[in-house]
Amino acid sequence: MHVGVKIGIGLAAAMMGATLSGGAVAAASQPPPMPGIEQQGTAGPRPAEEEGHGPGAIFVGPEGAAKAMGRLQQRDTLRARWCNGRVLPRDGLNVRTGPGTAYRVVGALARGTHVTTNWDTIQRRNGYLWVQLRNSSYWIADYKTGNGNGKWYIGYSNC
Length: 159
Hints:
Layout: H1 10-15, E1 37-39, E2 58-60, H2 62-70, E3 82-87, E4 93-96, E5 105-109, E6 114-125, E7 128-133, E8 139-145, E9 150-152, E10 154-156
């Protein structure tokens, strides 16, 4: 059983696109805690085979997979940079310190959590497309790649 606590105001503000002002001090070696991220307990990362935990992700066919992969090449002024969405997997989505499964899991976003991601940071690693959370040093996998198929972990409203 996973035990975690929700901490901090900085993450909710960052995820909502707000900026932190005055009074917020964080240790130099750690990014500031962000609300909405269920922090990992001493037991370590959640036992899961993939970044999104449980059902709820949107499966896409070959056309959807091609569209997702096209985002890697589409880096122009016509594309939205800041994309707003909600976490889809029923049991949450890992949050990591960098773009890839080799980076440390610092917590998980619960289903329905609002996120704003920076699509200018999009990277493909370890079978996922990774994006950085707005105003944060944390990363999430927003798409799991597959052989002509895949699935979205974030349901975007503007991208």
